[in-house]
Each structure stands twice: as structure tokens, then as C-alpha cells.
Design a protein that fits this description.
There is one protein chain. The chain has 13 helices and nine strands. The protein has 331 residues and is of the alpha/beta class. Strands 1, 2, 3, 4, 5, 6, 7, 8 and 9 form a nine-stranded mixed beta sheet that branches.
């Protein structure tokens, strides 16, 4: 172990994940970067995970355990941030696992480029070990993105907003905690950080493994349940549009397209029973589409199909939702 290794704090929120937690923790313990601490934050588990974390603490002195009432992943992460001692922070979801060289490669990239955040590639893996289609494609070689360029990548759905694939200077979280009670919280935090930093370095190596368990609503979504993530995404889109106008005015068209895309995603998934006058967010989205028909037509970053759907939803939303559902069922 190098004499001058910096301490890296790895925060793992834990909730009812007994089957996969040990694999996750072992992958962090196996890091070639040995000077690290693992903060296991038990978020009110009830399936025996709350006992397992205490057993895992006995495996290695670098493991620290915290128990708290259930409050969600963001609240667990925030507790971990407040207790972390490292100069750098990593985050791992408790059903995922990482490659042994992850944090060493990310740390080296940060030092060589003087960037406050380093990001690695990811694999999407199912229960049989099969590699699934990439959600985010890593670059062919190391790339340094200035804040504005990475913001563009995120708004075009090309960039990876997850903090799980990243190593981040802990000082960046002095102003930004994860929003509790919200989904897509990583995007929310990262876009607020971008105007405050030099940029992000992205390495081509796939260092993080995202595990997809069949039937998991957190990974795949449920056709029977309308996740609040669609509404949270719309709120995030409005927040990032205001931020772009202030810091990156040349990206305004891209941000407006992002907001329209998130509203389209909402409209394509909302259950028909929720498309009524009592649903304030739904009513606001329809009103937004009606008021921005000109922008929909002019925006060159929307496809023709997206424009058609958005315009039709602004006129007859329930009918178009029924037609879309029927087409999906037939296909």
C-alpha cells in the first residue's frame, strides 16, 4: 500500500437486501486502493439485513455501520456523507458490485487531470450474468468534459448522471445533499454541481456493475404502477432549464427540448385513470404543451415523431394515451 494514499469513503445505503449485500461489500473490500472506509447505512431494514451489516463489520476494520429509521436512499446517503472521513466519496448501491480496480483508476484520472469528479463505465447485468444493452456508453479513451459540455451530454440523454459510477471530492457535498423523498436524485445534485466545478474526467474502463433483478420495480419499473419518477423528472427538467438560462445560455434550446421530452415520457406512461382535473401535475403538463406549441414546432432537437406526439397530447391527451396503449398492447 502506498504511503501517501488518500482516504476514500464508500457509502452504501442498505435496505432489505440480505441476499446481495455481502457480494457488494466484498467487491469494495477487494479494491486495489486499500486506504478506504465503507459506510454501511442500514435504512430501517426488517428482513435480517439489519443483523447482517453488524456481522459484516467484523470482517474488516474499514467497515463502519450506522442504523437509522427508514427514510429512503437519499437520507441514507446524506447520513453517510455527514459521517464520512475521506477526502473523496464513492457511492455503491447495495445490490450492485464493482471491479477491484475501480477507485484506483478513478483516483489516478482525477490526479492526472486535476478534475474534482472522475467517472467510469458501467455494465448492466441480469440474474444469469448476461450483459444487457448499454444505457450509457463509455468513451473509447479518456475524455475531460467541461461543465457545459457534460451538461449537454446529460440533456441529450448521453451522459451518466449516477454518482455510483463516480469518485467525487467530498467538499462538493458541503453545499449539495441528496433531495430526500425524490427520485432521479443523482441528476438533481449533479446538474447543480456542474456550474461550480472545472469539469469531469471520464475513463473508458467499465468499473461498475449494475445488477437487474427480475421483477424489481426499482430497476425495471412496473407496468401496473405509475412511478413518481416521471413527475420528479419533469420537476428536475424545469429546475435544470432555469439553471441553464443562468449559467449556460447557449444550451437553452437543448434544455427546452429536455423539458418537452420529460413531459412526453410522463404522458406516455400516466395511467388513463389519473388523467383528470384532480391531478394538478397532469393538468400543468397539458397546459405547458398547449402554451409551447410554437417551441415544439421550432425546436430542431426534437424528432418529427416526438413533435407529433407532443402536439397531439396538447389537443386530445386522453384519446392519444388510449391509442398509444392500444398500439403497445398490439405490438
Amino acid at each position: 500500500m502506498e504511503r501517501e494514499q488518500e482516504l476514500i469513503s464508500v457509502i452504501i445505503p442498505v435496505y432489505n437486501i440480505k441476499e446481495y449485500l455481502e457480494r457488494c461489500v466484498d467487491s469494495v473490500l477487494a479494491q486495489t486502493w486499500e486506504r478506504l472506509e465503507i459506510l454501511l447505512v442500514d435504512d430501517g431494514s426488517t428482513d435480517g439485513t439489519e443483523k447482517l451489516v453488524d456481522e459484516l463489520r467484523k470482517k474488516d476494520s474499514r467497515i463502519r455501520v450506522f442504523h437509522k429509521p427508514n427514510g429512503g436512499s437519499s437520507s441514507a446517503r446524506n447520513l453517510g456523507i455527514s459521517e464520512a472521513k475521506g477526502k473523496y466519496l464513492g457511492f455503491v448501491d447495495s445490490d450492485d458490485f464493482i471491479e477491484p480496480f475501480m477507485y484506483e483508476r478513478l483516483y489516478r484520472a482525477m490526479q492526472e487531470t486535476e478534475m474534482p469528479i472522475a467517472q467510469g463505465g458501467r455494465r448492466e447485468i441480469d440474474e444469469q450474468g448476461n450483459h444487457l444493452q448499454d444505457i450509457c456508453v463509455p468513451p473509447d479513451k479518456r475524455v475531460v468534459y467541461e461543465g457545459e459540455n457534460f451538461m449537454r451530454e446529460l440533456l441529450l440523454h448521453k451522459g451518466d448522471c449516477s454518482f455510483c459510477t463516480k469518485l467525487t471530492e467530498a467538499s462538493l457535498f458541503e453545499k449539495q445533499g441528496f433531495p430526500e423523498g425524490k427520485l432521479n436524485e443523482d441528476f438533481h445534485v449533479l446538474v447543480k454541481m456542474l456550474p461550480e466545478i472545472k469539469g469531469i474526467v471520464s475513463i473508458p474502463e467499465r468499473v461498475y456493475n449494475v445488477f437487474y433483478k427480475s421483477g424489481s420495480n426499482t430497476r425495471t419499473g412496473s407496468v401496473l404502477k405509475f412511478s413518481r419518477v416521471y413527475g420528479d423528472n419533469v420537476e428536475n427538467a424545469d429546475m435544470v432549464t432555469d439553471l441553464v438560462r443562468k449559467h449556460y445560455p447557449e444550451l437553452e434550446k437543448t434544455a427546452l427540448r429536455f423539458g418537452l421530452y420529460q413531459r412526453l415520457d410522463y404522458m406516455l406512461h400516466i395511467p388513463i385513470r389519473d388523467m383528470n382535473g384532480r391531478n394538478g401535475q397532469y393538468q400543468g403538463i397539458v397546459r405547458h404543451l398547449r402554451e409551447n406549441r410554437g417551441e415544439i414546432l421550432r425546436n430542431q432537437e426534437l424528432t418529427g415523431k416526438q413533435k407529433a406526439y407532443l402536439l397531439l397530447f396538447s389537443v386530445m391527451p386522453v384519446l392519444i394515451r388510449k391509442v398509444h396503449r392500444a398500439l403497445r398492447s398490439a405490438g
